[in-house]
């Protein structure tokens, strides 16, 4: 497999390849100062500087076996990762300079997905008593709050809006996998897409009413990799949706927040098609 780390420019409507590697890397986050991207690969975490793109390993201590659910605090000082080292996915934080991690979630499995814009809270997907939930907890760890879920449906991919007013996520609670949003206190639950496609991982734009998301064709189960997919953008002001990119990808393409802080660009992964 060849992985292509891409940057899509909204104004130009085009993507450019920043880095190509002959291995699997996934899920780019953009640093708050705009200078680098954070990705995972082979169970580890890597920085990719924009000026001289390359995979620079980050020391994560005992938090090994990382999956593609990771991120960066709004002030850029702390990383958050989801590690299978304890046996199931568990959330840890660590200094952005690298080092020993601090465990954030006691209950497992927990998959991180979003950091509130004020830096105070995490939002994540969790399975508790065999049911999916969208949860939050304090940034330093603490009491888990179940925001929505528990219906027997799948819930995944929560991410905050730039003002912290909503958490967007994807769920099958409406019958098919669509995008939803809810207040962090669990009120004002609203379904935001209603089409035949299978929609995942919504990421609100930092500077506008748009939401970027990953879209599979009708009938796809889960969020598999190695698939023909689309990156779409929903304008919540007008209700219009447009296709930005068609690519070979899926799992790993935009699992976590991937917008540049000024909303002008976003990062994503695409992968080589089988020969």
UniProtKB/TrEMBL annotation:
Tell me which family the UniProt entry assigns to this protein. Answer: Belongs to the TolB family.
Q: By what name is this protein known? A: WD40 repeat protein
- Organism, by scientific name, is Pseudoroseicyclus tamaricis
Q: Where are the transmembrane segments?
A: none
Top-level taxon in the UniProt lineage: Bacteria
């Amino acid at each position: 497999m060849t992985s292509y780390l891409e940057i899509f420019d909204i104004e130009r409507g085009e993507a450019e390849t920043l880095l190509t590697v002959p291995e699997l890397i996934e899920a780019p986050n953009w640093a708050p100062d705009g200078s680098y991207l954070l990705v995972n690969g082979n169970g580890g975490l890597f920085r990719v500087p924009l000026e001289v793109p390359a995979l620079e390993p980050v020391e994560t201590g005992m938090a090994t076996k990382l999956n593609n659910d990771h991120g960066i605090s709004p002030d850029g000082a702390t990383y958050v990762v989801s590690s299978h080292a304890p046996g199931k996915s568990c959330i840890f934080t660590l200094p952005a300079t690298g080092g020993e991690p601090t465990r954030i979630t006691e209950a497992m499995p927990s998959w991180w997905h979003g950091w509130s814009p004020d830096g105070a809270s995490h939002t994540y997907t969790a399975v508790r008593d065999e049911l999916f939930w969208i949860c939050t907890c304090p940034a330093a760890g603490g009491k888990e709050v179940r925001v929505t879920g528990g219906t027997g449906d799948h819930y995944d991919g929560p991410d905050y809006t730039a003002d912290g007013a909503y958490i967007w996520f994807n769920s099958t609670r409406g019958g098919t996998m669509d995008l939803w949003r809810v207040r962090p206190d669990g009120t004002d639950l609203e379904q935001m897409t209603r089409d035949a496609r299978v929609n995942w991982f919504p990421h609100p734009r930092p500077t506008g009413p748009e939401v970027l998301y990953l879209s599979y064709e009708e009938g796809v189960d889960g969020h598999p990799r190695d698939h023909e997919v689309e990156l779409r953008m929903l304008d919540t002001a007008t209700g219009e949706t447009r296709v930005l990119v068609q690519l070979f990808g899926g799992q790993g393409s935009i699992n976590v927040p991937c917008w540049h802080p000024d909303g002008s660009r976003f990062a994503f992964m695409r992968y080589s098609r089988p020969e």
